[in-house]
Structure formats: structure tokens, C-alpha cells
Amino acid sequence: MTWFEAVFVLLAGMGAGTINAVVGSGTLLTFPALLAVGIPPVLANVSNTVGLAPGAAAGAIGYRRELEGQRGRMLRLVPASIVGGILGGVLLLTTPDSAFHAVVPVLILLGCLLVAFQPWLSKWISAPSHLHRGAWWVIPAVFATGVYGGYFGAAQGVLLMAILGLGLDSNLQRMNGLKNVLATAVNTVAAILFVIVHDIDWLVAVLIAVGSTIGGFLGARYGRRLPPIALRTLIVCIGAIAIVTLMF
Known about the structure:
mainly alpha; transport
């Protein structure tokens, strides 16, 4: 890898860390960047997951203020993310990606629609079901998103924000902090799995880790300043870009 390519990957990691902290979809920056510098797809995917894990943790730490009072939610949802992330990583290593890749744009589109119409859907579903503990389907939905995140992860944050927005009674910024914790859990267990059983391009992983950690703190610092409508709009826009990128 030339120094120019190394800087390119580092900057992609920084951008991914920022986007992941605010929305989630940073993989759509780093994965194409790794392919562009000649990293084979599977190696790029696993190395990217390892590199993005520290950035996800940085975003979660940056949103620690929004996590106050959500310990019970984390205790219920993090295990679902961990199990889902492990299963998703196993699927990546043992199955062809053609079938799963075909449904990814559909999942992202569904997530965008749910985020966009979440205020109206929440009222339609009725407020009594949205208690502090959350709707019954939140845990299995978080598990399913963890499987997706362990497998590939692009727009994992969009899907999580849609699930949390519909299933929990909380404001958007607090849900964003919780989303960062869940994404960190998925990325971390998948990264550990890949380190144990698969080759890693450690130069790539370190460059992305450094960039995504810086970006994670930046995203957490400035992302919380966005008003709900701006954050919701950004989520939908990132999701739309994800769909176009993955389809074409």
C-alpha cells in the first residue's frame, strides 16, 4: 500500500467513524475504499469490521450522557446484539453472500421508511405499548439487526434507529446513544471472531481503527447538536445512498 492509499484509507475510516456515531452506515465509505486499493472483498470486509470496532466504541463513549438512565435497556438489548453479531459473523465465513446481499437494499429501505414515518407510526400503534421497557418485538428485532451487522453492517445504524424509534418511548438523541452501544457490541464480537478464525490485513485494520476512533468522538460531539428533524433527515438520506450504492 502506498502512502497515498494509506492516507485515503485513514480518511475513509475517519468519515466512517463520524457517520457511524451520528447515524450508522460508515461501512459504505470504508468498504468501497478498501476495494479501491485492491483488498479482496472478504478480507476487506473482515478487516473493516475489526477496524471499525474501536470507532463504534468511541461513539458510544461520546454519547455517554444520553445513556444515563438506560442501563436496564442495555442489559436487555446488548445480549441480543452480541448473539446476533456472532451468528452474522459465522454466516459471513460459511455461506455465499449472494442471497443475503439481495435482501440488504430491501432492509435498508424498510429502515429508512420506518425512521421517516416513526412519529406518525408511533401514534398509530398507540402510546400505551411504548413503555420504558419497550415493545415485545424490540429484542428479536435487535437480534436480527445484529445478525445483519455481523455479516456486513452497512446501514446497521439506520435499522437500529428505526427499531428503537418505534419500539421505545424516548427521544431521538437518547436512542442514538443506545444505538451506538448496540452497534459496538455487534462490531466487537464479530471482530473478535474474525481475528480468531480469519486472516486480517492489520495495516488496513489499524488505519481504519485510528481514523474511526477520531471520527467517532467527532460524530458524538457534533451529532448531539442536531435537532430531531435534522437527524431524522440525515438518517433517511444516508439510507437512500446506501441503497443506491449497494444496488449499483
